[in-house]
Specification:
The protein is mainly β and 390 residues long. The protein has two helices and 14 strands. A ten-stranded antiparallel barrel has the order 1-2-3-6-7-9-10-12-13-14. The longest helix has 15 residues, at 13-27.
Length: 390
């Protein structure tokens, strides 16, 4: 009885990969004969200038957002990296006498974005004055000193992102190209992993100002027409601070299906040939998204004083550090497409084109609560390929 129960256990993800490989090894033997001059092994190396599109909730605490309207908001600088230079590689094996193809490919990229943006005003020196009557028009500055503070807004941010996409596929040349060329359908397994980390620090003072106190009119022998005195009474200002640290990732694996075609339009393989390449892919990834987010805000107020020479007591308001750790199993649909041009001469290829992949419901982009976001990964690519055997 126990043996029957063990036999009914669900296969693991790695068993699924092994099954896909076994299908390739068993299935190609029944295919039609391939061209004898076609290489058995293709080695492809390349890169992609990737545009990264990862949704993430902005960090908008109350205190630091009370920054002067003359300064740009911090949300303008909090975005994750937008660009990545990916490295790609692929091995394709076509056994002699078969039009079945077994392939394995990988795409890897990482990027860093750092921001250190400081905006501030430059107030004039602070001083008091003696003001004379209308006939003398004498203004005498005194008690000169520099300002104790100024209006400012500061944003420091560092974000790191990395991603890897791995494909194991079994394909068959079905010879149904759109424009008279070849066409191939691939069935396999796709694995994808995305990671990003953010560290944000905000600071601002929205309301620095100088308060003056006036003394009544009185008489001094050296200034017979003195009208009054203006004393420096103090400076009031805030210091707002906020910090956020986050770590987010998604890891998933699942079945994939792709279709690719190639249609020649100039030349031939022996002397040089140009082909138009195209393709589309879909996958369903079963995986886990997780997020670990911590943030804190703090505000100090330095009130002005009405007594010359004295400073007001600091008034502080602090929010306790907030920590959120979330993890959840998700299903992420993946769709993609590509188009490009290849130059081939005998067993050598150079390709260039544009490729896009979108992973829906993949990343948890929320701060205090879960928000599922899509991941976009798209941009121009270029590859070189070498054929061996045949």
């Amino acid at each position: 009885m126990s043996e029957l129960i063990q036999n009914k256990k669900m296969p693991s993800r790695w068993q699924f990969l092994a099954t896909a490989s076994a299908i390739a090894l068993l299935g190609y033997t029944g295919g039609a004969a391939a061209k004898s001059d076609e290489p058995q092994l293709w080695i492809e190396l390349g890169g992609q200038l990737t545009r990264l599109d990862v949704g993430q909730e902005t960090f908008s605490p109350v205190f630091p957002q009370q920054r002067p309207a003359m300064f740009a908001p911090s949300t303008d600088y909090e975005e994750l990296p937008h660009q990545s230079v990916d490295e790609t590689g692929k091995l394709s094996f076509r056994p002699s006498g078969s039009d079945w193809v077994l392939s394995a490919g990988v795409r890897y990229g990482r990027s860093v974005r750092k921001v250190d943006k400081n905006q501030q005003t430059f107030p004039k020196p602070v001083y008091g004055t003696l003001v004379s009557g209308p006939q003398s028009s004498i203004v005498i500055p005194f008690l000169y000193h520099g300002p104790l503070a100024h209006k400012f807004a500061s944003t420091q941010m560092e974000a790191r992102e990395s991603h890897v996409i791995v494909d194991f596929q079994v394909g068959k040349d079905v010879g149904l190209g759109l424009f008279g060329g070849s066409s191939q359908i691939d069935l396999g397994v796709r694995f994808a992993q995305f990671n990003n980390k953010s560290n944000i620090a905000l600071a601002s003072d929205p309301d620095w100002h100088v308060h003056y106190k006036y003394a009544p009119t009185f008489w001094l022998p050296i200034f017979p027409k003195l009208e009054g005195m203006k004393f420096w009474g103090g400076e009031g200002y805030h210091n707002h601070y906020a910090t956020l640290q986050s770590q987010r990732n998604f890891r998933g694996i699942g079945p994939s299906l792709s279709w690719s075609g190639s249609s020649p339009f100039v030349g031939n393989r022996e002397d040089g040939e140009l082909t138009f390449d195209y393709g589309a892919n879909v996958a369903v990834l079963f995986g886990r998204q997780s997020a670990k987010v911590s943030h804190e805000t703090r505000s100090n107020y330095h009130p002005e004083t009405l007594n010359y020479g004295a400073r007001g007591q600091h008034v502080s308001q602090v929010t306790f550090p907030t920590h959120h750790t979330r993890s959840r199993n998700v299903v992420s649909p993946n769709v993609g497409a590509m188009a490009g041009v290849t130059y081939r001469i005998q067993n050598f290829k150079i390709s260039a084109g544009y490729r896009a992949d979108f992973f829906f419901n993949a990343m948890d982009g929320g701060n205090d609560a879960r928000i599922s976001e899509k991941i976009g990964n798209y941009g121009p690519f270029a590859t070189i390929s070498f054929g061996l055997g045949g």
